[in-house]
Design a protein that fits this description.
With 327 residues, the protein is α+β, with helices and mostly antiparallel strands. Among the domains are: 160 residues, no CATH class; 46 residues. Strands 2-3-5-1-4 form a five-stranded mixed sheet.
Protein backbone atom coordinates (compact mmCIF):
# COMPACT_ATOMS: atom_id res chain seq x y z
CA UNK A 1 0.00 0.00 0.00
CA UNK A 2 1.41 3.39 -0.97
CA UNK A 3 1.15 6.64 0.91
CA UNK A 4 -2.01 7.93 -0.78
CA UNK A 5 -3.93 4.67 -0.31
CA UNK A 6 -2.84 4.47 3.26
CA UNK A 7 -3.88 8.06 3.98
CA UNK A 8 -7.27 7.37 2.36
CA UNK A 9 -7.71 4.27 4.50
CA UNK A 10 -6.76 6.15 7.62
CA UNK A 11 -9.17 8.97 6.75
CA UNK A 12 -11.96 6.46 6.33
CA UNK A 13 -11.44 5.14 9.87
CA UNK A 14 -11.06 8.71 11.27
CA UNK A 15 -7.56 8.25 12.68
CA UNK A 16 -6.14 10.80 15.11
CA UNK A 17 -4.76 13.93 13.56
CA UNK A 18 -1.26 13.31 14.81
CA UNK A 19 -1.09 9.93 13.10
CA UNK A 20 -2.40 11.41 9.89
CA UNK A 21 0.29 14.14 9.96
CA UNK A 22 3.07 11.61 10.48
CA UNK A 23 1.86 9.47 7.59
CA UNK A 24 1.63 12.54 5.33
CA UNK A 25 5.23 13.44 6.15
CA UNK A 26 6.43 10.10 4.83
CA UNK A 27 8.11 10.15 1.37
CA UNK A 28 6.70 7.88 -1.30
CA UNK A 29 9.42 5.56 -2.67
CA UNK A 30 10.48 6.48 -6.22
CA UNK A 31 9.53 4.11 -9.01
CA UNK A 32 12.30 2.38 -10.88
CA UNK A 33 12.50 3.56 -14.46
CA UNK A 34 12.98 1.00 -17.24
CA UNK A 35 16.09 1.71 -19.37
CA UNK A 36 15.34 3.25 -22.77
CA UNK A 37 17.29 0.65 -24.71
CA UNK A 38 15.20 -2.15 -23.24
CA UNK A 39 11.99 -0.42 -24.33
CA UNK A 40 13.26 0.13 -27.89
CA UNK A 41 14.49 -3.48 -28.08
CA UNK A 42 11.14 -4.85 -26.97
CA UNK A 43 9.22 -2.76 -29.53
CA UNK A 44 11.56 -3.81 -32.36
CA UNK A 45 11.25 -7.48 -31.40
CA UNK A 46 7.45 -7.26 -31.46
CA UNK A 47 7.53 -5.54 -34.88
CA UNK A 48 9.82 -8.23 -36.37
CA UNK A 49 7.62 -10.99 -34.98
CA UNK A 50 4.50 -9.45 -36.55
CA UNK A 51 6.22 -9.15 -39.97
CA UNK A 52 7.41 -12.79 -39.88
CA UNK A 53 3.97 -14.06 -38.94
CA UNK A 54 2.26 -11.98 -41.65
CA UNK A 55 4.75 -13.15 -44.31
CA UNK A 56 4.10 -16.77 -43.45
CA UNK A 57 0.35 -16.35 -43.69
CA UNK A 58 0.43 -14.47 -47.01
CA UNK A 59 3.02 -16.82 -48.52
CA UNK A 60 0.99 -19.88 -47.58
CA UNK A 61 -2.20 -18.44 -49.05
CA UNK A 62 -0.47 -17.47 -52.31
CA UNK A 63 1.12 -20.89 -52.61
CA UNK A 64 -2.19 -22.63 -52.03
CA UNK A 65 -3.90 -20.38 -54.58
CA UNK A 66 -1.17 -21.12 -57.13
CA UNK A 67 -1.54 -24.87 -56.57
CA UNK A 68 -5.28 -24.60 -57.02
CA UNK A 69 -4.87 -22.74 -60.28
CA UNK A 70 -2.40 -25.26 -61.68
CA UNK A 71 -4.07 -28.46 -60.49
CA UNK A 72 -7.56 -28.04 -59.04
CA UNK A 73 -8.88 -25.74 -61.81
CA UNK A 74 -7.40 -27.77 -64.64
CA UNK A 75 -5.02 -25.08 -65.92
CA UNK A 76 -1.41 -26.05 -66.48
CA UNK A 77 1.60 -23.77 -66.24
CA UNK A 78 2.29 -24.35 -69.92
CA UNK A 79 -1.18 -23.16 -70.80
CA UNK A 80 -0.75 -20.01 -68.73
CA UNK A 81 2.63 -19.31 -70.33
CA UNK A 82 1.20 -19.77 -73.81
CA UNK A 83 -1.84 -17.62 -73.17
CA UNK A 84 0.09 -14.64 -71.79
CA UNK A 85 2.90 -13.11 -73.82
CA UNK A 86 3.80 -10.32 -71.37
CA UNK A 87 2.12 -7.52 -73.32
CA UNK A 88 -0.53 -5.20 -71.91
CA UNK A 89 -3.84 -5.32 -73.77
CA UNK A 90 -4.91 -1.99 -75.18
CA UNK A 91 -7.95 -0.80 -77.08
CA UNK A 92 -7.26 -0.96 -80.82
CA UNK A 93 -6.45 2.38 -82.37
CA UNK A 94 -9.06 1.80 -85.05
CA UNK A 95 -11.78 1.63 -82.40
CA UNK A 96 -10.70 4.88 -80.71
CA UNK A 97 -10.23 6.63 -84.04
CA UNK A 98 -13.61 5.52 -85.30
CA UNK A 99 -15.37 6.65 -82.11
CA UNK A 100 -13.65 10.06 -82.25
CA UNK A 101 -14.52 10.39 -85.93
CA UNK A 102 -18.14 9.49 -85.28
CA UNK A 103 -18.36 12.03 -82.46
CA UNK A 104 -16.90 14.80 -84.61
CA UNK A 105 -19.19 13.84 -87.51
CA UNK A 106 -22.23 14.22 -85.26
CA UNK A 107 -21.31 17.79 -84.35
CA UNK A 108 -23.53 20.44 -85.94
CA UNK A 109 -21.21 23.09 -87.38
CA UNK A 110 -22.27 26.27 -89.18
CA UNK A 111 -19.60 27.80 -91.44
CA UNK A 112 -19.59 31.37 -92.73
CA UNK A 113 -17.04 33.30 -94.77
CA UNK A 114 -16.41 36.89 -95.86
CA UNK A 115 -14.13 37.78 -98.79
CA UNK A 116 -12.85 41.06 -100.18
CA UNK A 117 -11.94 40.74 -103.87
CA UNK A 118 -10.37 43.10 -106.42
CA UNK A 119 -10.46 42.61 -110.15
CA UNK A 120 -9.40 44.52 -113.25
CA UNK A 121 -11.93 42.74 -115.46
CA UNK A 122 -15.19 43.35 -113.66
CA UNK A 123 -17.62 41.96 -116.23
CA UNK A 124 -15.58 38.81 -116.86
CA UNK A 125 -15.14 38.21 -113.15
CA UNK A 126 -18.86 38.61 -112.36
CA UNK A 127 -19.82 36.16 -115.08
CA UNK A 128 -17.24 33.65 -113.83
CA UNK A 129 -18.49 33.97 -110.24
CA UNK A 130 -22.09 33.28 -111.25
CA UNK A 131 -20.96 30.29 -113.31
CA UNK A 132 -18.93 28.87 -110.40
CA UNK A 133 -21.86 29.26 -108.03
CA UNK A 134 -24.02 27.12 -110.31
CA UNK A 135 -21.27 24.53 -110.77
CA UNK A 136 -20.87 24.10 -107.01
CA UNK A 137 -24.57 23.68 -106.42
CA UNK A 138 -25.06 27.01 -104.68
CA UNK A 139 -27.27 30.01 -105.21
CA UNK A 140 -27.22 33.80 -104.87
CA UNK A 141 -29.21 34.92 -101.86
CA UNK A 142 -28.73 38.66 -102.39
CA UNK A 143 -26.83 40.84 -104.86
CA UNK A 144 -26.26 44.59 -105.14
CA UNK A 145 -24.18 46.44 -107.74
CA UNK A 146 -23.06 50.08 -107.64
CA UNK A 147 -21.92 52.42 -110.42
CA UNK A 148 -23.31 49.89 -112.84
CA UNK A 149 -23.43 52.32 -115.79
CA UNK A 150 -19.97 53.74 -115.15
CA UNK A 151 -17.03 52.42 -117.10
CA UNK A 152 -14.73 52.09 -114.06
CA UNK A 153 -14.70 51.77 -110.28
CA UNK A 154 -17.70 49.49 -110.16
CA UNK A 155 -18.35 47.29 -107.14
CA UNK A 156 -20.82 44.69 -105.94
CA UNK A 157 -21.94 43.01 -102.72
CA UNK A 158 -23.18 39.44 -102.93
CA UNK A 159 -24.50 36.98 -100.34
CA UNK A 160 -23.97 33.47 -101.65
CA UNK A 161 -24.91 30.03 -100.33
CA UNK A 162 -22.55 27.13 -101.09
CA UNK A 163 -22.67 23.50 -99.85
CA UNK A 164 -20.64 23.38 -96.64
CA UNK A 165 -18.42 20.52 -97.78
CA UNK A 166 -17.38 22.51 -100.90
CA UNK A 167 -16.73 25.87 -99.25
CA UNK A 168 -12.91 25.67 -99.30
CA UNK A 169 -12.84 24.56 -102.94
CA UNK A 170 -15.12 27.44 -103.95
CA UNK A 171 -12.86 29.97 -102.20
CA UNK A 172 -9.88 28.53 -104.09
CA UNK A 173 -11.79 29.02 -107.35
CA UNK A 174 -12.40 32.69 -106.53
CA UNK A 175 -8.72 33.16 -105.70
CA UNK A 176 -7.85 31.78 -109.15
CA UNK A 177 -10.01 34.28 -111.08
CA UNK A 178 -9.58 37.34 -108.84
CA UNK A 179 -7.38 38.83 -106.13
CA UNK A 180 -8.55 38.17 -102.58
CA UNK A 181 -7.55 41.10 -100.37
CA UNK A 182 -9.29 39.97 -97.19
CA UNK A 183 -10.58 36.62 -95.98
CA UNK A 184 -12.50 35.55 -92.89
CA UNK A 185 -13.87 32.05 -92.21
CA UNK A 186 -15.80 31.23 -89.02
CA UNK A 187 -17.22 27.98 -87.63
CA UNK A 188 -19.99 27.96 -85.03
CA UNK A 189 -20.96 24.83 -83.09
CA UNK A 190 -24.75 24.64 -82.61
CA UNK A 191 -24.86 21.01 -81.45
CA UNK A 192 -26.42 21.81 -78.06
CA UNK A 193 -29.15 23.98 -79.58
CA UNK A 194 -29.85 21.36 -82.25
CA UNK A 195 -30.19 18.57 -79.66
CA UNK A 196 -32.51 20.76 -77.58
CA UNK A 197 -34.75 21.37 -80.60
CA UNK A 198 -34.90 17.64 -81.39
CA UNK A 199 -35.81 16.85 -77.77
CA UNK A 200 -38.61 19.41 -77.80
CA UNK A 201 -39.97 18.00 -81.06
CA UNK A 202 -40.02 14.47 -79.61
CA UNK A 203 -41.77 15.68 -76.45
CA UNK A 204 -44.41 17.61 -78.41
CA UNK A 205 -45.06 14.68 -80.75
CA UNK A 206 -45.52 12.37 -77.76
CA UNK A 207 -47.93 14.83 -76.17
CA UNK A 208 -49.83 15.13 -79.45
CA UNK A 209 -50.31 11.35 -79.62
CA UNK A 210 -51.46 11.26 -76.01
CA UNK A 211 -53.98 14.04 -76.57
CA UNK A 212 -55.36 12.30 -79.67
CA UNK A 213 -55.83 9.11 -77.66
CA UNK A 214 -57.61 10.98 -74.88
CA UNK A 215 -59.76 12.80 -77.41
CA UNK A 216 -61.06 9.50 -78.76
CA UNK A 217 -62.06 8.41 -75.27
CA UNK A 218 -63.55 11.74 -74.16
CA UNK A 219 -67.27 11.56 -73.35
CA UNK A 220 -68.23 15.04 -72.19
CA UNK A 221 -68.28 18.12 -74.42
CA UNK A 222 -66.15 20.06 -71.90
CA UNK A 223 -63.36 17.49 -72.05
CA UNK A 224 -63.44 17.50 -75.84
CA UNK A 225 -63.14 21.31 -75.98
CA UNK A 226 -60.26 21.40 -73.49
CA UNK A 227 -58.39 18.63 -75.29
CA UNK A 228 -58.83 20.31 -78.67
CA UNK A 229 -57.54 23.64 -77.33
CA UNK A 230 -54.47 21.97 -75.86
CA UNK A 231 -53.98 19.99 -79.06
CA UNK A 232 -54.05 23.20 -81.12
CA UNK A 233 -51.41 24.78 -78.88
CA UNK A 234 -49.18 21.71 -79.08
CA UNK A 235 -49.45 21.56 -82.87
CA UNK A 236 -48.61 25.27 -83.21
CA UNK A 237 -45.53 24.83 -81.02
CA UNK A 238 -44.57 21.73 -82.95
CA UNK A 239 -44.73 23.52 -86.29
CA UNK A 240 -42.64 26.39 -84.93
CA UNK A 241 -39.96 24.08 -83.52
CA UNK A 242 -39.86 22.05 -86.72
CA UNK A 243 -39.35 25.25 -88.72
CA UNK A 244 -36.44 26.13 -86.43
CA UNK A 245 -34.92 22.69 -86.99
CA UNK A 246 -35.26 23.12 -90.76
CA UNK A 247 -33.49 26.47 -90.46
CA UNK A 248 -30.65 24.79 -88.55
CA UNK A 249 -30.43 22.07 -91.19
CA UNK A 250 -30.16 24.69 -93.95
CA UNK A 251 -27.45 26.59 -92.07
CA UNK A 252 -25.48 23.38 -91.55
CA UNK A 253 -25.84 22.13 -95.11
CA UNK A 254 -25.08 25.46 -96.85
CA UNK A 255 -22.37 27.92 -95.84
CA UNK A 256 -23.01 31.63 -96.27
CA UNK A 257 -20.36 33.69 -98.07
CA UNK A 258 -20.31 37.48 -98.23
CA UNK A 259 -18.46 38.81 -101.29
CA UNK A 260 -17.27 42.42 -101.52
CA UNK A 261 -16.12 42.85 -105.14
CA UNK A 262 -14.31 45.99 -106.31
CA UNK A 263 -13.16 46.94 -109.79
CA UNK A 264 -9.69 48.53 -109.89
CA UNK A 265 -7.34 49.68 -112.60
CA UNK A 266 -4.39 47.83 -111.14
CA UNK A 267 -3.79 45.09 -108.58
CA UNK A 268 -0.60 45.12 -106.49
CA UNK A 269 0.11 41.69 -105.07
CA UNK A 270 2.50 42.14 -102.16
CA UNK A 271 3.54 39.63 -99.54
CA UNK A 272 3.95 39.73 -95.78
CA UNK A 273 7.70 40.38 -95.89
CA UNK A 274 9.31 43.79 -95.28
CA UNK A 275 10.18 44.41 -98.92
CA UNK A 276 6.77 43.16 -100.01
CA UNK A 277 5.01 45.72 -97.84
CA UNK A 278 7.41 48.47 -99.02
CA UNK A 279 6.69 47.57 -102.62
CA UNK A 280 2.93 47.63 -102.07
CA UNK A 281 2.92 51.01 -100.28
CA UNK A 282 5.33 52.56 -102.82
CA UNK A 283 3.20 51.46 -105.74
CA UNK A 284 0.09 52.77 -104.02
CA UNK A 285 1.68 56.18 -103.40
CA UNK A 286 2.92 56.46 -106.98
CA UNK A 287 -0.51 55.54 -108.24
CA UNK A 288 -2.15 58.13 -105.98
CA UNK A 289 0.30 60.80 -107.18
CA UNK A 290 -0.38 60.00 -110.81
CA UNK A 291 -4.08 59.96 -110.14
CA UNK A 292 -3.82 63.42 -108.55
CA UNK A 293 -2.16 64.96 -111.62
CA UNK A 294 -4.60 63.18 -113.90
CA UNK A 295 -7.56 64.58 -111.99
CA UNK A 296 -5.93 68.03 -112.02
CA UNK A 297 -5.51 67.94 -115.79
CA UNK A 298 -9.05 66.71 -116.30
CA UNK A 299 -10.50 69.44 -114.07
CA UNK A 300 -8.37 72.11 -115.80
CA UNK A 301 -9.57 71.10 -119.23
CA UNK A 302 -13.12 70.89 -118.02
CA UNK A 303 -12.84 74.45 -116.65
CA UNK A 304 -11.79 76.01 -120.02
CA UNK A 305 -15.28 77.37 -120.78
CA UNK A 306 -15.17 79.41 -117.57
CA UNK A 307 -11.77 81.02 -118.35
CA UNK A 308 -13.12 83.84 -120.61
CA UNK A 309 -15.77 84.74 -118.07
CA UNK A 310 -13.27 84.78 -115.25
CA UNK A 311 -10.89 86.87 -117.37
CA UNK A 312 -13.56 89.46 -118.12
CA UNK A 313 -14.52 89.68 -114.47
CA UNK A 314 -10.86 90.14 -113.52
CA UNK A 315 -10.42 92.97 -116.08
CA UNK A 316 -13.49 94.82 -114.79
CA UNK A 317 -12.28 94.54 -111.22
CA UNK A 318 -8.83 95.88 -112.16
CA UNK A 319 -10.32 98.88 -114.02
CA UNK A 320 -12.56 99.77 -111.11
CA UNK A 321 -9.68 99.55 -108.65
CA UNK A 322 -7.51 101.88 -110.78
CA UNK A 323 -10.28 104.52 -111.02
CA UNK A 324 -10.79 104.44 -107.30
CA UNK A 325 -7.09 105.00 -106.72
CA UNK A 326 -6.99 108.00 -109.09
CA UNK A 327 -9.80 109.73 -107.23
Amino acid sequence: MNKKEYIKAVDNITAPQGLVDRIAALEQPAKKKTPLWKTVTAIAACFVAVIIAFSGIVGGSLKAESENMSSGNGFSNDFLADSYDGSVSEMPESVTDSSATAESANRKIVKTAALGIKTKNYDTFMNSVKQKIEEYGGYIEKSQEYNYDNASNRNANMNVKIPADRLDAFIDELAAIGTITSKSVESTDITDSYIDVESRINALETEEETLLGLLKKAESLTDVIELQERLSTVRADLERIKAQKQSYDGMIAYSGISLDINEVERVVEGDDTFFGEVKEKLMNNLYDLGDFFRELAINSIAALPYIPILTAVAVVVIVIVKKVRKR
